[in-house]
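sry for the spam today, last one i promise. struct tokens for design, 157 residues
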């Protein structure tokens, strides 16, 4: 195997090891040691298989490191986000780029399912991987039970 450079999300971290997931390919790499990583950290890094067996990996170089903050907001979606959801079919995802960096994801849920949908988004590893790909450092989940609208805001800061 050869070394690999990319964007990696830390999915598991213990004192002596960590697991990172490639944000683009979803390939998982178990690190033989933990160089101070925490769950939800994002690394722009190079990893390489550790000799002689090349079963575990090691971090060779780190170009950038940041942490993704997941926020379960008590705020409701903005008027704009509610309008976007109103134009969508039930369950359809509406994606909109934010000015600058980041993205908005908005969708309507069936009656009574917005809380479960919000929990699903907050618990999904792909939410962190998407944030890493979008260069976001904060993911804010807003919802309106009354309107059945869920918004996920991938924010640069």
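last one done:
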């Amino acid at each position: 195997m050869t070394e690999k450079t990319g964007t990696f999300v830390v999915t598991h971290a213990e004192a002596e090891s960590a697991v990172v997931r490639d944000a683009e390919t979803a390939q998982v790499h178990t690190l033989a040691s933990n160089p101070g990583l925490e769950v939800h950290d994002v690394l722009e890094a190079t990893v390489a298989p550790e000799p002689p067996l090349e079963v575990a990996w090691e971090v060779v170089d780190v170009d950038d490191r940041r942490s993704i903050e997941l926020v379960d907001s008590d705020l409701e979606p903005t008027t704009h986000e509610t309008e976007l959801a109103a134009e969508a079919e039930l369950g359809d995802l509406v994606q909109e780029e934010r000015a600058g960096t980041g993205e908005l994801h908005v969708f309507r849920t069936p009656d009574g399912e917005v809380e479960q949908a919000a929990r699903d988004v907050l618990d999904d590893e792909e939410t962190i991987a998407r944030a890493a790909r979008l260069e976001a450092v904060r993911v804010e989940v807003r919802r309106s039970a009354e309107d059945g609208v869920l918004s996920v805001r991938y924010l640069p800061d």
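Strands lie at 4-13, 18-22, 28-31, 41-49, 57-67, 69-72, 93-97, 103-108, 138-144, 149-155. ok im logging off now
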